[in-house]
Write a structure and sequence with these properties.
The protein is 75% helix and 0% strand. By secondary structure, it is mainly alpha-helical. The protein has two domains: 55 residues, Homeodomain-like (Arc Repressor Mutant, subunit A), CATH 1.10.10.60; 135 residues. The model has no long low-confidence stretch (mean pLDDT 90). InterPro entries: Homeodomain-like_sf (IPR009057), HTH-type_TetR-like_transc_reg (IPR050109), HTH_TetR (IPR001647), Tet_transcr_reg_TetR-rel_C_sf (IPR036271).
Length: 208
């Protein structure tokens, strides 16, 4: 994009370009190391101009989360409309773990790591997870009940498996998406067949 084109760029397009630049910078340098100056350079603008749109890296994370809410809603909409829930889940896993660029997994890993250090980023992550848990719990309520499970337990199992796959794709050079998706689906089938149950909570007392 030329300098002249940048000067007449619409506000929404400029925000989108900044968020895309932040995504690349965070994935390449790591969230902690990627300064606002690095993001500005990636977006081909001055740091001062960047601060007009986003006041901090935490604000950039919030912007990325807001941008991705529409995509998340579309994913859940497909699950809600599907006659074959597991088939729809397989398609979504394939979309994110095979077809999508690996940079999205790198970015997720960076943001999760930063959430352990940064309360503002942690709250953004919790807000996204609350939405995901609520939507997914409604989707799996009937099959979970048929298996004698609460929706909350089923969601916990599914999110644990899915988060693990994102982490492994980001860190394992020989990650085989199709094989791992098949394994995840086997876990989901076992879950809704009632073969995976929560461990009973200890009631106290000393071990024998």
């Amino acid at each position: 994009m030329s300098i002249a084109a940048l000067s007449v760029e619409p506000e929404d397009a400029r925000r989108t370009r900044i968020l895309e630049a932040a995504e690349r910078a965070f994935a390449r340098h790591g969230f902690h190391a990627a300064s606002m100056q690095i993001v500005a350079a990636e977006a081909r603008m001055s740091a001062g101009n960047l601060y007009r749109y986003f006041s901090s890296k935490e604000a950039l994370v919030s912007g990325l989360a807001e941008r991705d809410q529409a995509a998340l809603a579309e994913d859940f909409g497909q699950l809600e409309a599907a006659d074959d829930m597991l088939g729809a889940m397989a398609a979504l896993l394939r979309k994110h773990l095979v077809a999508a660029p690996i940079g999205g997994c790198h970015l997720a890993l960076e943001i999760w790591a930063e959430a352990g250090r940064n309360p503002a980023v942690a709250e953004v992550c919790r807000a996204i997870e609350r939405v995901a848990r609520t939507r997914l719990a409604a989707i799996v309520a009937a099959p979970a009940a048929a298996a004698g499970l609460t929706p909350d337990f089923a969601v916990r199992v599914m999110l644990t498996v899915t988060a693990g796959l994102f982490k492994r794709r980001a860190t394992e050079p020989d990650f085989d998406g199709e094989a791992e998706i098949a394994l995840a689906l086997a876990v989901y089938r076992a879950l809704f067949a009632g073969a995976i149950k929560p461990e009973p909570r200890a009631t106290g007392g000393s071990p024998s």
